[in-house]
Amino acid sequence: MPVTLKSRQQIARLREAGRLVAETFALLREHVVPGATTAELDRIAEEFIRSRGALPIYKGYGEMRGRGGRVVRPAFPATLCTSVNDVICHGIPNHKRLKEGDIVGIDVGVLLDGWVGDSCYTYAVGAIDAETQRLLDVARQCLELGIAAAQPGKHLGDIGAAIQEHAEANGFSVVREYTGHGVGRKLHDEPTVLHYGTRGTGMRLKPGMVFTIEPMINAGAPDTRLMDDQWTVRTADGSLSAQFEHTIAITDDGPEILTLL
Predict the structure, then answer these.
(1) For residue 63, what are the CA distances in angstroms to 69, 75, 95?
(2) DSSP 128
(3) Would you give the distance in Å from CA 20 to the centre of its chain?
(4) Rounded Cα–Cα distance for residues 155 and 203 (Å)
């Protein structure tokens, strides 16, 4: 069953968590510069989130065990996902310095008073070339179009179609394997939100539903490859990738973005 909130109080709590995420992005903006490391950005974000009485929900998340209790994927070790250049998502912060012309997708998740905030923004590091800027612009537009399509009475497929049509019309591709998701008291819940699809198909959208829309747009082919750390996902062809994400609530009047200042 999809996450469906039935009271204004519940939406308000999610809005508070989302605002903290947005405040974290505002804080990080001045620190995403050539010479910075993603490990430094991670430290800044974690200190800020904890100072506000929240927890970084990604840290320690997602351990998977196989037969006999063997760890097949370790828990995520950091506060932020930091995805540089050809990394699509789930990049682990490290001590490599960012360079002029890089791009870095930063995913922030918090747990505030039992409610989740989740969002992603791709930053330019210093000056970037025109084609990289076009990728960022189109990826951001894909998110905006997906949100605009999330109207009560419409379908999840309308969101995916809006994103896919715009990305492909601009010569880019949409990652298939990684999706949006329901948000509430858990980081990942129903429904699964695809960023491609066919209009008029999929679950019908109803007021009270809360989920993320987070298209990952590749400059090249949509294919992905998972690295040995079992978290970092790169483009298979080495092309750049950009991601933007918001958590939204479906209301009688349309979608409300919960992860804004």
Answers:
(1) 11, 4, 23
(2) -
(3) 15
(4) 5
In the predicted model, is pLDDT for residue 6 greater than 70?
no
- Residue range 103-150, pLDDT digits in tens: 999 999 999 999 999 999 999 999 999 999 999 999 999 999 999 999
Write b or e for each residue in 122-133: b if 16 or more Cβ atoms lie within 10 A of its Cβ, otherwise e. Answer: bbbbeebeeebe
Strands 216-218 and 173-174: antiparallel
Number of H helices, E strands in the chain: 4, 17
Domains of the chain and CATH, by start: 8-257 (3.90.230.10)
In whole angstroms, what is the distance from residue 122 CA to residue 88 CA?
Answer: 11
Confidence check: pLDDT of 31 > 90? yes
pTM beyond 0.90: yes
CA distance 44 to 42: 5
* Residue count (the chain): 261
Give the model's confidence band at 48: pLDDT under 50 very low, under 70 low, under 90 confident, else very high: very high
Strand partners, 210: 249
> By the 8 A CB rule, do 143 and 214 touch?
yes
Residue 223 CA to residue 227 CA, distance in Å, equals 13
Give, as one character, the DSSP assignment of residue 147: H
